[in-house]
Every structure is written in C-alpha cells, then in structure tokens.
Amino acid sequence: MLLAKLAQGVKFVTLPRFEPNSFFKLLDEHQATVLYLAPPLVLLLASHPGVRPKHLQSLRHVMSGAAPLGSLDVERFLRRTPPTTDILQGYGMTEASPLITHGIIGSTDYDSAGVPVPNTEMKVVDAETRTDLPQGEMGEICLRGPQVMKGYLNRPEATAEMIDSEGWLHTGDLGYYDKEGHFYVVDRLKELIKVKGFQVAPAELEEILRSHPDIDDAAVIGVPDERAGEVPRAFVVPKRSQISEEDVKKYVAEKMSEYKQLKGGVEFLASVPKSPSGKILRRMLKGQ
C-alpha cells in the first residue's frame, strides 16, 4: 500500500504513535483526502466529541480493514463526513500476501468486503464437511490464487490443515457471498457462540450495542450455560454512568432474536482490550 501510493507521487502522512488529539491535529493540518483506518479509528471519528467538521471536510475515500465494520457503524461515521465520501472495506490475511477482496468505489453496500482481487478464486464451504455452499449460505471462506503462501516454514502439519490438496486456503472466517459475487465477512469461526445449536456472531451483537446512544464501545463473548451450552455476555464501555445492565439487555432484546439475547449478563469497562490492529482481545475478557 505504502509503496504503491508513493510511486504515484501521493503525499503520505503517518503517526509515530496514536493519540487522538495528535491525530485530529494532523487531519486539520494536512486536510487528508484518503484515510486507511482500522475499525476502532472509524468508530473514534464517528463518536469522539473532539472531532470537528474541519477535520473531515476534505475527505473523499476511506479504506477499512483488519476486522469487520458493520453498516450501522459506517452510517454513524458518514454523518460527519462530506456527502461524497466513500468508505470501502477490504479483506485479507497474512497468508494471502495479504489482500483477498476489495470494495467497489461508489457502493453503498457497507456490510460488503467487496469482490475478489484479480486472479483470485473464492468459495464458501461447510466448515465441518468442507462441501461447497451456494450463494447466501453461511460457511467458511476459502480462496485460491497466486498470492496464497506456499506454507508455514518447517510446519507441514499446520500448512496441510490450512491449505487443502487442491490448493484452497481455508481462512477460518465465517461469511457468505451474494449473486453479484460480493463477499461478506461475519466473524471468526472460532469466535462463534453456540446457543442451543444456533450460531451467534459476536460482531453482530457488538454493532447493535454500539448503536445505543449511551454506549461508546462493546465486546461480546460466549460463557458456559448448563441448558444452552453457551450464552452471550457483553462488555460495555458506557458514555454515561447512569446506564444499567437492564437498559442494555432490554435494548438488545428489542432488536435481536431470543437466542441472541444477553443471558450471560453485562459488565461495564473503562475500555475494551484490543490489539494494535484493532481486533478485540477476547481471551482477556474470558479471563475476567
């Protein structure tokens, strides 16, 4: 990404370390037209009280990756940008060098991660049987193309587990594709919460929680339950101290199916633990 833009003579501005006020200052000073952002920074720009119209007035395109970004979060962000601003999602992984799909400029299908990059084949399979699934059915995303790694160094068993005999790389990501070939990444397969045989994607609940006017950020994990096997538990960063656990549960209950409700409870945090790329560190939450 960096070399491609520099080759085109584009001015590239980076931060040595992230701090909101420094970030806002650079946005104002350089009047950026293109931003490459992980989802937490999109959420920050959508909700931080320090963001002013001058910070985003020159913005034309936003590229987001590293984790799924839901349409509700995108719409909150776009309320603060010029009406002509595009936001695109890309999907990739280190084992694919790293790009797999890229959004289409002008698309308003904000949930989509786009279409496969050139020379890339993609499909969705049943995670257990590895049989191909048709459009619209949820399963594991797989790809095949020149960007796929040869394998893990000195780890043949790990390589064989990820890349099958026909050269398909099994990503471990849950998703589906539509009739136009657009792919949608829902969550990591290993993160799914299994409630009475139903599969619940934490990312879906997290997006709903962030749409609450008194919630700044959220994370969801599965916790053991004697009857259901697992149930969702939410970790919430409130905007005001008066919001209660019952408020949060009621909000989700009004919008989601019965098996997706927060029967594992709600805990309030000062911040959600995340990696530098913006991925939620669920293992830290499970240890609490």
TrEMBL record:
Cellular localisation: Peroxisome
Domain AMP-binding enzyme C-terminal residue range list: 204-279
GO cellular component: peroxisome
Pfam families: AMP-binding (PF00501), AMP-binding_C (PF13193)
Matching Gene3D superfamilies: 3.30.300.30, N-terminal domain of ligase-like
Presence of the UniProt keyword Methyltransferase in the record: no
GO molecular function ontology, one term from the record: long-chain fatty acid-CoA ligase activity
Statement: the UniProt record of this protein carries the keyword Ligase: yes
Example of a GO biological process term: fatty-acyl-CoA biosynthetic process
Primary localization class, coarse: other
Keyword annotations from UniProtKB, A to Z: Ligase, Peroxisome
Domain AMP-dependent synthetase/ligase stretches: 2-153
Family per similarity comment: Belongs to the ATP-dependent AMP-binding enzyme family.
Descriptive protein name: 4-coumarate--CoA ligase 3
Native source species: Cryptotermes secundus
